[in-house]
Structure formats: structure tokens, C-alpha cells
Amino acid sequence: MSTAAPGSPLPAPTAGAITRQLLHHAWPVLVAQVLSMSMMIADTLIAGRYGTADLAAVAVGSGLYISVVMLLVGILQAVAPTVAHLFGAGRLHAIGPALQQGFWLALMLAVPGTLVLGYPEPLLQLARVPPDIAEGAGAYMQATAFGLPAVLLYRTFYAFNNAVGRPRVLMAISFVVTSTHIPLAWSLTHGLFGFAGLPALGGTGCGVSTAIVAWLGLICGLAHLIRSPAYRPYAIFFDWRPPRLREIGALLRLGVPMGFSTFIEITSFTLIALFIARLGAEAVAGHRVVANLAALVYMLPLAMSIATLVLVGQAAGAHDWARARATVRVSLYLTAGFATAIGIGLWLLREPVIALSSTDPAVRAVALGLVAYICIYQLTDSTQTVAAHALRGFKVTLLPMFLHTLCFWGVGLGGGYWATYHAFGRDTAPTVAGFWEASVAATVLATALFGWLLYRVMGRQGGLVAASGR
After folding, report:
1. Is the domain of 324 the same as that of 231?
2. What Å distances lie between residue 104 and 156, 251, 347, 385, 411, CA to CA?
3. Are residues 96 and 170 in the same domain?
4. Please, are residues 133 and 198 in contact by the beta-carbon 8 Å criterion?
5. Which residues of the chain have pLDDT under 50?
6. Are residue 300 and residue 157 in the same domain, yes or no?
7. Ordered alpha helix ranges (H), 191-280
8. What is the DSSP string of 119-180?
9. Which of 55, 169, 359, 366 has its CA 20 to 30 A from that of 315?
């Protein structure tokens, strides 16, 4: 959070001051993200201990669930740069109405999202998921559908809270949600509620728990929003307004490219589980183990990127372009250093880490063969993630969406399919490693392209950057 009052002139930026601001904002976001990610890891461990077939079903089902959720949540992330610009400009009276329209947009998006999750058969058939995996994956998705409206409303609150520099409450709520989910998911999966007439649900139990704790998180967020005096200046619940097409349209113009960018980047991994389903449950499960590790590693650059978006957005709202550019530079250096250290540590601890994820030797063998790709991938991916979020802070979202499509669907998924099933004699011996090889190439290209675009944007001084939105 900025140390100056909203809208007031900021002092000349220094690397030390910006570093402190970034870390002050990023560490609670990091803890909140890691706690949320630990729910997915817990699902992997719980389902994996229950059975390999259930782990594969959860891998496919959660992959589709995450793809749908991140598309819709990405659109709602338009609330973050919108509120950050208002905060930086000192227009506190406009923040409450902007958040209200964000809540309305969340409810609107929940309708198609719930239908997609509630009726997953077309997606599973399109992906040619084997029937033994499709049945469990579909049941998992249908269970999570009940929690989707709560997820979207909470993530709107999440974006707002970050934008006004109050991320610590998100950390506290994530702790409550995660500490509830893990024992609940274990109990539902293994049938520990049998005394109440509820049988063991297998992997579907993880989906039921996910839906339940989504509503718990929303209740906690709304209670804090209503009771905390820190939000009174924004008059969030004063003069509640119905949906306004103009304001919602502005959020959609900014958020739809953000949502598709997030969707494209996330599905470049989650769709791998669908494309490799024909390789068998062990390949899908091994990929899920390594994908969880990659997602966990990604939490640090994501936290730094969210902090960068907020601070850049606040500086842009205040028309402090020098501070915005300095924030981007410091964040890039910090994140690259963190990513290098994480990659080295992960490589050194790869065997005990993989051993925690599955008792199946075949699954462990697949996962160990893929760990090296994470160590390479996460360095370039962290850099492009910071650059992409910095561009969102400048309200530049359209061209990044096309760059994400080129890199992560074109090179990552398209190239990965070729490398898995056709390259180097793999038409007779396909391997999931091909997708990971292409993913590394995709992040290298994305880093170069987003670095170029960010350099161009930061060279454009003044209000044109914030006003154009392109």
C-alpha cells in the first residue's frame, strides 16, 4: 500500500522504498495464495491416497473447474486496476459504486459458469476422456458447481481489497477456508461421516468440500466488509445501485481480455491433463503431481505481480509515471531473483517432495521425469507474469491477450501436442514430457514479447497509457 495519502504527490521513488512497498503488499497475498493452492495439493494427496483412479478423476475434473473459474475470475480482476486508479487519484467516493458493479457482474457471470460445471458431459466428451475417468471427473465438477457463485463474489472482494492496499484480511480468510477444507475433504472422501449415513464419496468428496468452503470464505469476507471501519470512506453499502450497463460495460472491456489471458495461461496446463488422458491414469496423475508443484512455485511471482499491478495502478491513477516505471523495474529484478532460488531448491529436494504426492511407483516415476522442466520454466514464467500484470496496472489488456494466445495455446498446447505424439519418433512412444518442453519454449517467447510491449508502454508518458486501454 502506498505510504502517501490517496491522490497526493508522491516523493521521488527509490529502489529501497519501492522494494519495501512491494514486499509489504506481496507477502500477505503470497500466504493467501499458498493457502488456497494447498487446497488443491491436499485434494491430490487425499485422492491419491484413496486410489489412482480417483486421483486421475480429480486431476481432470479440477482442471476443467479451474479453467472455468479462472476465466470468470480473470474478468472480475478488472475491479483491481479500476479501483487502484481511483484510489491513486483520491476519488474515494467512486470506489464503492465501482465495487457494487463488480458484485453485479460476478452474479451475472455465475449463471453460465454454474451451467457449464453442472452439465460437464460435453466438455468431457470433447476431450475424449476415458469413461472410467470421466464418470468421477463429472461428479467432481457437478459438486463444485454449487460453490461457484460464492467463489466469484469473494474474488471480487479479493480484487477490491488488494487494490486499496488491504491484503492481510485475505490471508486470514484463506487460513480459515483451508483449515476447514482439508479435514472436511478427507472425511467426505474416506467416509468418516458414515455415522450420519453419508458413504465414502471418493474424489467427489474433494469437490463437495470445495463448494462448502467457498460459501464460508464469502461469508467471512462480507462480514469483514460490513463490520470493519476501514471501509467506511468508500461507502460501499450506502446508496446501493442496480446494475449499470455503462459501468459494467467498462469492466467488461477491461476484464474480458484479462479473463481470456488468464484462461489461456491456465488452460495451457490444465488442458494437458485432457490431452494426455489417452496415455493412462498414471501419466495423468504424474502430470497432476508436477502441475501442482508448478502452481505452488508460481504463487510467489503471482504475489509479486499482484502487488506490482496495484502499485502501478495507484501510481498511474496519480499520474506519477516515474514511480510506475520504477515499480516495474524493481519488481522484475526481485521476482527473477526469487524464482532462481526456488528453482535450485526444488531441484535439490525433488525426490522427497514427489514421494509425498503418491504411493504409486509409476506415478512417482512420471513426476520425477518432469521436475527439471519446472526449474527451467518457472524462471521465465515469473518474468512474463510480472510484465503482464504491470500492463494491467496501466490498463493495457487487449494486445497481451493476443500474445498470451500465441505463446501458450499456439506454442505451448499446439507445439506440445506435436512434441508429445509426433516429434522424435513419439508417434509410437508418446510421452507427456513433450507438453512440458513446449511450455518452456512458450514462456521464453512470452518473456521476450511482454518485455518488448512493456518497454514500449512505459516509454509513453502521460495519460495516453491509462486512457487508451490498449
Report:
1. no
2. 10, 11, 45, 28, 36
3. yes
4. no
5. 1-5, 7-10, 195, 462-470
6. no
7. 204-227, 245-275
8. S-HHHHHHTT--HHHHHHHHHHHHHHHTTHHHHHHHHHHHHHHHHTT--HHHHHHHHHHHHH
9. 169
Domain boundary (210, 243, 276) is at 243
Record the cell numbers describing residue 245, joined without a space.
450497463
Residue ranges making up the domain that contains 385? 257-462
Q: Round to whole Å and give the CA distance between 329 and 308.
A: 10
**Domain closes at, from 243, 266, 298:** 243
Are residues 222 and 109 located together in one domain of the fold? yes
| pLDDT reported for residue 448 | 94
Q: How many CA atoms lie within 13 A of 269 on its CB side?
A: 24
Phi/psi of residue 199, nearest 5 degrees:
-80, 175
Contact criterion met (CB below 8 Å) for 359 and 49: yes
Residues 24 and 165 in one domain: yes
Return d(Cα 170, Cα 340) in angstroms, integer: 27
The grid coordinates of residue 175 equal 487460513
Please give the pLDDT value at position 193: 66
Task: Determine how many CB atoms are found less than 10 A away from the CB of residue 23.
Answer: 14
Say yes or no: 227 and 326 in one domain: no
Q: How many domains does the chain have?
A: 2
Q: Is the dihedral of CA 8, 14, 19, 24 positive or negative?
A: negative
In a domain, 193, yes or no: yes
Exposure class string for 220-251: b at 16+ Cβ within 10 A, else e: bbeebbeeeeebeebbbeeeeeeeeeebbebb
pTM of this prediction exceeds 0.85:
no
171 within a domain of the structure (yes/no):
yes
DSSP letter, residue 5? P
Q: Are residues 292 and 434 in the same domain?
A: yes
Q: Is residue 90 part of a domain?
A: yes
With respect to residue 376, please indicate whether it lies within any of the assigned structural domains.
Answer: yes
Gap between the Cα atoms of 105 and 128, Å rounded: 33
Do 155 and 177 share a structural domain?
yes
Please state, in angstroms and rounded to a whole number, the distance separating the CA atoms of residues 427 and 230.
60
pLDDT at 196: 53
Q: Give residue 280's pLDDT.
A: 76
How far apart, in whole angstroms, are the C-alpha atoms of residue 402 and residue 381? 17
